[in-house]
Amino acid sequence: MAADKAEMDVLKKECDGLRTQIEAARKGVNDGNMSSAAGSATDVGRVQLKLRKSLKGHLAKIYSMHWASDSRSMVSASQDGKLLVWDTHTGNKLVAVPLKSAWVMSVAFAPSGNLVASGGLDNMCTVYNIKAASPKTLRELDAHTGYLSCCRFLSDTEIMTASGDTTCCLWDLETGKQKIIFTNHIGDCMSLALSPDENTFISGACDSLAKLWDLREGTCKQTFSGHTSDINAIQFFPNGNAFVTGSDDCSCKMYDLRSDQEVITYQDASLNAGVTSLTLSNSGRLIFAGYDDFNCHIWDSLKGEKVGVLSGHDNRVSCTGVPADGMGVCTGSWDSFLKLWN
Amino acid sequence: MSTTNNIAQARKLVEQLRIEAGIERIKVSKAAADLMSYCEQHARADPLLVGVPTSDNPFKDKKPCIIL
Q1: Is the Cα torsion angle A288, A150, A62, A338 positive or negative in sign?
Q2: pLDDT tens by residue, A78-121
Q3: Cβ separation of A32 and B28 shorter than 8 Å?
Q4: Which residues form a coiled coil (chain A) (predicted)?
Q5: 3-state DSSP call for residue A69?
Q6: Closest alpha carbon to A201 in A151, A248, A249, A246
Q7: Which residue of A lies nearest to B7 if distances are taken between CA atoms?
Q8: pTM here?
Q9: Under 8 Å between Cβ of A255 and A261
Q10: Do A37 and B32 touch (CB under 8 A)?
């Protein structure tokens, strides 16, 4: 017992030492911040986007939405127990997928457009073929021991999931089995995002940390702190060198991977609502963040200033997304509507 | 034995921190400059920044003209 305690003390000391080393290394490169550097950037002015369409169809809270790679189709998930695939140009519903479990928290479109996936409190990720005559369940990925908070396809044969069981997982859709389990978070994983080159991914969790992972090795490469509450949303900056997080602490933050730290915080004294979701415009200059205050606020990612707001929902904005062609932004809400703005 | 678990966990944590401590870091000023440069280079191709012309707007409801 004494030997165990002695070893614990040695290990604890080593941990503390390494943490101090990391902080010192970060401080050592911290020679300025984003907003001061952005003094010379062109002003974006007031960003005033118009509501172009309100998509009606769901009968309960919308929890998640995801654009298809064609920038035209989009899938949404609601706790009315349905996934709806929309043609956003016409506003028409293309496909309705009835869910076995209504408690859905996340939905994703495969890059091919052939498959969609969803999951939630059933702890599973179910993959559907929506190109069949009627939506067909392709796979039920059942191994997480906590809710499914986020899923993202790599292709028609691989999908990533994030779970309330604190792990993320890479699945093989041909076998339906887990390929790699990513463990390191000590709180529910709430969100994940794939890097543009798909070699890495980032995750945000209720332990208030964001982590960068090697997708193929299964290892955690970097850990980012700063938030003081659950991270609910995470997205890469388009060049893959930085990412933005949104948290219950009412702020968003941008972290740079190469300097291994936070470079700017997006917060406002008047904004006392948690951030539920976020997405970036194609140049990375604008951040659209959905809040519990029923609005989607628009931030200048470089200067850290609020430059606009998308108002119109009658309840929490739960999801946002910009399609690949960058032509607009979609917001989804607990008010059961999806809105398209540009 | 919970102490063995704790030690195993502590060892894992040390290993993880060693990985994270060992990476190369660039200066924040360089990181910021690169982010700014990316935004500036891609600004003109960002429809949400420059605006979408009405005729090309895929989401706009196409209503027929009414002649009064």
Answers
A1: positive
A2: 999 999 999 999 999 999 999 999 999 999 999 999 999 999 99
A3: yes
A4: 1-28
A5: coil
A6: A151
A7: A8
A8: 0.95
A9: yes
A10: yes
